[in-house]
Amino acid sequence: MKRFFFILSVGLMAVSCWSHSDRLKVDIDKALKKQVDVRELYAQAAVIPLHFSEGMTLGQESQPVMEVAADRFFLLDKENNTIRVFNWEGDYLATIDQPEKIIDISAYKDQVLDVLTAGAISEYDIQDGSFLTAYPIRNNEVILTSLARVDEDTIDLKGSLNGRAYDCGYLIGQNRFYTVVNDFYPAVDYQSGRYFHSNDSTFCFCAHSGDILFYRGDDFIFPWYEWDFGKRDPVFTNVQKTTDRIYLAFTLDGKDYMLVYNLDDRKYKVVEYDTFPLGVIYAGRNYYFSPADCAITCYTL
Question: Mapping DSSP to helix (H, G, I), strand (E, B) and coil, where does residue 117 land?
């Protein structure tokens, strides 16, 4: 385990030094002055109403956490501590409950849904929502905030403790949970940032720096994309990625926006969030759930 810590720390330090030489520059104020037709950002949009069973409700206090997998939508309703499962026609299929408070969920390769609580990572089948297994988290003081599976043997987690950020994980083959302090990022970046998958790769965004970290199965973490916003200081609420574009939802001066950055030509556009909200990008589509409409809008990118 000491070797693992060493490799992780050295990997962060070495790659961080390299990646600072190629930061992605964005002038938000200049981009906001340009008129953008949002239809340039997606080909078409379709609304999928969700059909709840009689008497079923969904908490309205906060935006549910959503995951998308093969013919399935998973909505984590933190207010009611439940996960609602729907198919892509919007039909209700099942509810996943936990006795402990559910912190986060993450879908992996259309196979399993990982559910994080303070005491365990529980695994459910993507297709029928049946319980598969659980990995206990024991003797842990770190306040965990998010998780994602990197490969068949590794589940990565983020958290914080006493103002410091922590990279954590569960090694399935060794039945072992670990924590590693990360002094390269402030705790606030880990408290609000979240993992996401793109083309079978695992990433995580930092809420305040905007940095996007790439996770490999050999215990390395790479700052894959770093940003230069000049004197502006946006706070990021969601990040998704396709092969050639990065989609960043952010708040600035009390307003919500979406930044679409083209990695090929390094051009970018900024639009008001309501005109093109960001949810989960899966197979070339952006799925966004609206609690007010109780529906998911599918934007074909």
Answer: coil
- State if pTM tops 0.70: yes
- Torsion, Cα 248 250 256 262, to 10 degrees, reads -30
3-state DSSP assignment of residue 189: helix
Alpha helices in 20-114 (DSSP H): 28-32
**DSSP-derived 3-state class of residue 283:** coil
Alpha-carbon torsion angle 291, 247, 213, 116, nearest 10: 10
pLDDT over threshold 80, residue 10 = no
Question: What percent of the chain lies above the pLDDT cut of 90?
Answer: 80
CB distance 208 to 235 below 8 Å: yes
Tokens of 87: 């198919």
Residue 101: Cβ within 10 Å count: 11
Amino acid identity, position 142: V
Dihedral (CA of 202, 208, 211, 217) sign: negative
How many residues make up the chain in this entry?
301
pLDDT digits (tens, 9 = 90+) for 231-287: 999 999 999 999 999 999 999 999 999 999 999 999 999 999 999 999 999 999 999
Q: Is residue 69 predicted with pLDDT exceeding 90? A: yes
- How much of the chain, in percent, has pLDDT values that exceed 70? 91
Q: What DSSP state is assigned to residue 254?
A: T
- Strands across the sheet containing 92-97: 65-69, 72-77, 82-86, 92-97
**Paired strand residues for 286:** 281, 299
* Distance, CA of 67 to CA of 180 (rounded, Å): 27
Q: Residue 63, exposed/middle/buried by CB under 10 A (0-12, 13-18, 19+)?
A: middle
For the chain, give the longest Cα–Cα distance. Answer: 56
Q: Tens digits of per-residue pLDDT, 115-126?
A: 999 999 999 999
> Helices (H) and strands (E) in the chain — how many of each?
3, 26
**Owner of token pair 């083959």:** 173
Label the pairing between strands 227-228 and 24-25: parallel
